[in-house]
Design a protein that fits this description.
The protein is an alpha+beta fold. 24% of the residues lie in helices and 38% in strands. It contains 2 helices and 11 strands; from the N terminus they run ααβββββββββββ.
């Protein structure tokens, strides 16, 4: 009986497949663990939000003051606010850097398409280099209405 198993060379054929399966399972497990560990480092990161004033504007050129605040509502200094056209047309990209009070002023020249009654201007925030800030969630948009 033992002779039959010792002379059987087919057992070695399944070994590479088993090793590949073990490697794939190991890599998948390592990936899950690394994602969990990288998620732990973001626990101290504060989400930023943009608070435009006014939130509603007409077409044409107008100044909009944007206050950047952290998750606790505190103003954030040296954040860059970037305004781009959403569903409204914006002539160029506009940027402003917040001061000590967390406010930056943008001069927006928005327009709407034919037969369009309203649109939006998208606001994004580039967090300051110093501090644990991020801007992953959507910010308040500026609503543009036809005059």
């Amino acid at each position: 009986m033992f002779e039959r198993f010792s002379s059987d060379e087919r057992a070695i054929e399944g070994l590479p497949i088993r090793l590949v399966i073990a490697l794939v399972v190991g890599v998948a497990s390592l990936s899950v663990m690394m994602n969990t560990i990288s998620g732990l480092s973001t626990l101290g990161v504060s989400e930023l939000d943009a608070q435009p004033e006014p939130e509603v504007m007409g077409t044409g050129e107008q100044s909009v003051t944007v206050r950047v605040v952290d998750a606790d509502g505190e103003p954030v200094t040296n954040a860059t606010v970037v305004a781009t056209g959403g569903t409204a047309n914006l002539r160029g990209i506009r940027t402003a850097t917040t001061g000590p009070n967390g406010r930056g002023t943008l001069t927006l020249n928005a327009s709407l398409g034919p037969n369009q009654e309203k649109g939006t201007v998208q606001l994004d925030i580039k967090p300051p280099a110093s501090g644990q800030y991020t801007d992953k969630r959507a910010n308040t948009k500026v609503l543009v209405v036809a005059k």
